[in-house]
Each structure stands twice: as C-alpha cells, then as structure tokens.
Automatic annotation (TrEMBL):
Bias (Low complexity): 68-81
Family statement: Belongs to the isocitrate and isopropylmalate dehydrogenases family.
UniProt lineage: Eukaryota, Metazoa, Ecdysozoa, Arthropoda, Hexapoda
Protein name in the entry: isocitrate dehydrogenase (NAD(+))
Gene: CG3483-RA
Class of enzymatic activity (EC top level): oxidoreductase
Naturally occurring in which organism (per UniProt): Drosophila melanogaster (Fruit fly)
Amino acid sequence: NKSAPLTTHISGLKFSKMNTLRKLNSLPPFRSVGGAYRLFAGKDQKKDSAGQKTRQPEKPPQDKQKSKGASGKAKSAGSTDSAKKTTKVTLINGEGVGRELMDAVQEVICAVKAPIEWDVHDEFKAKDSDDVSPEVLKSLRANKVGIKGPVDSRHWQRQIRKQFAQFAYVSLCSHIEGLDSPYGDFDVVIIRDQMEGDYSGIEHLVVPGVMQTIKVSTTAGAARIAEFVFNYAVKNKRKRITVAHKANIMRMTDGNFLEAMRAEADKHVDDVLFEERYLDTCILKILLKPHKCDVMVSSSMYGDVLRVIAGGMMGVPGICPGYSVSSLGTVFDCRMKACHALAGKDLANPTGPLLSAALMLRHVKMDKQADQVDCAIRKVYKDTDIRTPDVGGKAKCSEFVKAVCDCL
C-alpha cells in the first residue's frame, strides 16, 4: 500500500527496535538530500531551535514566565487569581464584517465578566499602502496577545506573519452539536507552517510566458515547527501526531520537513504516537474517519487545504477557531473572509470569532470564563434554532450574540 506510513512510532517501543526500523526506512528513494545534511548539521540547528522553545507563547510554564522579569500583566497571566487582574489585548477590527464581529466579541467578553482591557485598532493598514500599521505592530509587541477580524489583503497577511514572526497556525476543529453534519463527533487539531513552504511568497518571471514560484524549507524552520507540534501534543494530552507530506515527489523540501518531524518524534516515543501519511491519504482519512484523527501537521499549503476541509466539516470554514504562534505573542482569529457584501447588514456568523475569543481567554489563564463562553455558544446550537443564514437559519448576528449572552 503506497499510502501506508513510512514510520509509525508506538508508545513504549524500545530505541533499539526503533533504530532498526529507522535503518530500514532510510533506504532510497524517500531519504532526501536535506535529510542527509541534517545528520551532520542537526546539532547546530537544534541550538537555534531550542532558543524558540522557552519563548513560545503556548501555555508557558509559570516559573519561566516569572523568570523573564515580566511586567505585572505577564505575571497575572500565569497567576491563579488572574480573574481579578486586567489583561490588555490588542483588538484589530479588520474590514468588511470585521467591525460587527469584533463588537460581538467585546459584548460576550463583557457578559462573561472577563477582566480584559481592549486596545482597539480601526486602522490596521499603514497610510497609502497595504503594509501593517506600525501602531498595530507596536501594540501587539507590547500586549503579547491579540484578536483580529477578517482582512482580505494577502500582502497585509504575509507582512504581519513576517514582521511578527508567526511561524505556525493552529486550528481547533471540532463537531458542534446541533449543526447539521454527516461527519459525526470529531476533535482535530491542524497545525501548519506559515513562514516557509509554498507560501514563502517568492515568485518571479523566468521568461515571457514562464512563471516560477519557489518552495522554501530550511532545517531550522522545520525543526522549530516540529518541536512546537510535539510540545503542544504533550501539554494538551494529545496521543497521535500525523504528518501530511509529498516527500515521494518533493524529496528535498518535503523530505526536509519530514526529517525534522522524525527527529523530534525520536524524543517522544513514550509520549505520543507518530505516523507519516501522504497528503491525499490524510484528506481521505479526515473525511472518512475524522474521529480517528488527532493532531495533523504539514507545511503551509497542505495545512491550509486540511484546515478549510475541517472547517467545512464543522458547518462552514469561517467558524473554525485558531491562532498564530510567535515568540513575540499570540494572535487569535478564524480566517474567515471579510464578506464586504454583508457589511452592516447584521448577517455575519460570529461563531468563529467567539470561539477564538474563548481560546484567547484560556491562553491568558482565564479558564473559567473560557469554558463558560465555549459552553454558551454550544448550548445555543444544541438547545435553540437560532442560526445565521450561512448555516441554514434566519437569525441576525446580534440575535445570536444576545442568545449567547443570555446563556452566560
């Protein structure tokens, strides 16, 4: 079966047996030139990658957070009584339906009595260009936490990733009881690279009529996201990691990404199962057996495909919450379109932004309020027929928000 994994790490497997499997799997054609280079350069690259480990914003350990000499706000994020302290959050309204969606987020956060102070930015672009506003970048770097509405500009999205060093995007896709779906109950986390791969943004004209795009994969970048993925799985008690790749075709770039995942998997054989699948096999699995999927990871374009599919399985792609990861902080959003035609009509679906707000609350250690918001959203879907038009209902955005606030 060509779609079978090259390697499967099973919890409890001894290193001697694993090394034997590794030697068997190291035969051509699947070992990349980039992978061979890793065997000699891996130690130096790991030093760079390890530097990112202590700076990742994904639930930082309490003692490390304090050791940075952080401000009172940072300490409150790790403190047990954080609900009594105020956390400042950058809020970017975005464009199109963005303002009404971010108004919905503020209304629900107020209803749940979460001590959040908003640093609101209506203007998210620099003057006379699609660049990210300097005020937005300054605010994000100061607050370390942000939430944003939809922005359609590809240039703006690419620039904020690079300026803010957002190397990974995490999507949390789960079934919402009450929404029509043929896929049953599922809970899948999709983590994708944002800095490299097909989305590196390097394109040029070779000769008239011939264009070229360059797919980038570095050993340091691949090691960084591999380390993040396995740390995420361990911290959140996830039991299986599946990497989606096409290393059989792109042996150097996808091969390098795959080698980084294998190297990190070797360190966690007792903690998490690891498997390798071709992208097409992963897509079939998430559609046919989503309840057997746990954490799925891939390079940029593959992960975007998986994210959109999983979001559609929830009901519509725009309701799948997520966040961008950076050593400088964390920005939450749900990657929905700006939908300019619906702007001001009170018809946008606020589910995705509200679920993203729940993730944000959990990130700043307001777990009680996060659970309340998440449960209230799901209760509206389970116990009422209040639905926006995109999921088959007739309710307005404000009516859905009011129903959530009434639950709270």
